[in-house]
Amino acid sequence: MGPHPAVAAIRLAVRRTLADLAAEAGTTFTPPARAPLGRPDAALVNAGAHAGAVTTLIGNAHRHPSGLPRTPAAPGSPLVLVAVSGGADSMALATATAFEAPKLGLRVGAVTVDHGLQDGSAERAGQVAERLRSLGLDPVEAVPVLVGRAGGPEAAARDARYAALDEAAERHQALAVLLGHTRDDQAETVLLGLARGSGSRSLAGMPAQKGRYRRPLLELDRAATRQACTAQAIPVWDDPHNCDPAYTRSRVRHEVLPVLEKHLGGGVVEALARTARLFRDDADALDQWAALAERDLRTGEGALDVPKLAELPSAVRRRVLRRAALRAGCPAGDLFARHLETVDLLVTGWRGQGPLHLPGGVEATRRCGNLVFRRQGD
User: Fold this and answer.
1) How many angstroms separate the CA atoms of 245 and 119, rounded?
2) Would you kindly state where each structural domain of the chain is located, as residue ranges?
3) pTM of the predicted structure, to 2 decimals
4) Can you tell me the distance from the alpha carbon of 309 to that of 222, in angstroms, rounded to the nearest whole number?
5) pLDDT score for 41
6) 196-214 as b/e, with b when 16 or more CB fall inside 10 Å?
7) Which among 188, 217, 213 has a CA at the least distance from the CA of 88?
């Protein structure tokens, strides 16, 4: 009998991501040698495992929730880390990764981040870490972080979490960090972008791949991860913050999306996720155009040629302006559409206005037909 459909779907999604990583790393996997006929060997798995026969674990393998033994990849094999909160999404991801990665010659570890925002959070992080070790993940770390206040509680927690994941990935030289975001998370991200009046890049939602981060479950619903955990008897922890209306994403999840589903019919989550994919294709194309345009427009002194800028479509021109502002030192998280609209007026609505002050102490000035971005004091 095969695995539960939700378990199978998650494993397939994870397998595809891991296969890409294994190909990038050039890994190969050599299965353990079979014992000579007629001689039992405690290091081998009995061929009747699927039929419920007694099995012996290979080496330091751990038994997977599927009931099958898990043979770890060889020491020194490329490592993949899974970011695990203890919730259904990340636990389903970690379990599937522990099942699939050894087949491709990859080791699997995990990081669970203790944000310190709730009573008992350190103990809970330790329990999640022990649960992951029981699945055979190694190394497993429970990392405490200090959450600041910049950008609000959700943004501050996210920044602290990614900083901890980046540090762990660098320290362990991990190929990638897998994140458990689902199609429901993608739909919520699109709605939040709409509410902020963001551009197409924000409406494109979360990418399946960005730098060291991979999101294998973006095409699957959140319900599938909970079904997979139930089918495999995997304990999960439901973060009370996910139901707290004080948090914007929680209100979108429990109030806005249900209303949309009720009045617009089912399929809203899938439609929003599909919208994100379409916006991402458009945004990627425009970003590539902007990168080429910036290269052609940049003068020898590093300024931008204003007459040539004015000839570009506004969607491309503002991307060029954003690239130039970031290059000059503007923090990406603080540079918003309203800033770029004002800078754009130096190109399209020039009336002799003076320098514009942008986040990060960057100044944008029109001078002698060129647009100059520089950090104040330079």
Assistant:
1) 19
2) 5-29+73-268, 298-375
3) 0.78
4) 44
5) 36
6) eeebbbbbbbbebeeeebb
7) 217
